[in-house]
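Hi Prof. W.,

I finally got the DUF1932 domain-containing protein prediction working! I wasn't sure whether to trim anything, so I left the full sequence exactly as given:
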Amino acid sequence: MEHRLGPRPVIGILHPGAMGAALGSALKPVAGAVVWAAAGRSHQTAKRAELADLVGVPDVAELARRCDVIVSTCPPHAAREVAEQVAAAIAGRPDPPLFVEANAVSPDTVRAIGTLLGAARVVDGVVIGPPAWEPGRSVLWLSGEAAGAVADLFAGSPFAAQVLGTELGAASALKACFTLHSEVRAAIWLQVAAAANRFGVDEALRGELARTGVDLAAERSAVAQLVGTTARRWAAELDEAADAISAIGLPDGVGRAAAEIYRRVAAGSLPGFPACAQPAAT
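And this is what came out:
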């Protein structure tokens, strides 16, 4: 089934954190308006939306009524709830919007949202890379029947849009694999450094690693800087990645252990690591 959007569609962003604001800004050149739902959102979220020049509407119901496309960017644990809010708002609408599930969730979560909103109207989307304000750093992977229509909206934007196929869950599966590769590696360094600290063998371990060309202090510093304010978000992403791995019958312990490491970092309970500053709720 081919999906076409009219010229200058109205696009909604739920809810504009750092990534959502960047996606909203990237869509402005092709949109009639890019809107966000202000009810219950923090001052920090409102400021991000203002800086991205997004238009505020009162609530999710109003956003869903007005929009041709809705992009959901929220914490992974809230993805289904946000989709349910949209479903309630568009019930009975003869021309329901396309819904882009752009969170780091498991393929099963995306498919459940497809069942809720209609699989043909849901696009599975994931960003690999940081919030993009200039080209060359981030790729937006899309899958689902309407993936091509959404990819067209991002043509020439800072997000390089790539279509992975028509199957809901394919983009999220790719993100799960990438998350395990990148975020588990960082968690291993955190665990090694914490264990050496707890055992009191920091100096000896540093010396042994140095003999193999590894600078433990540099690795620890780089990972601590990388984690920054992302520890809780990475824990949630790894939980979803572990769910994805478990669903295909592979051991999920690596991802769940890494998620626990990040939760301890966020709480300040990992030896040698102070609690990370966390962004305000959006």
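Residues 170-199 form the longest helix (30 residues). Does that look reasonable to you?

Thanks,
D.
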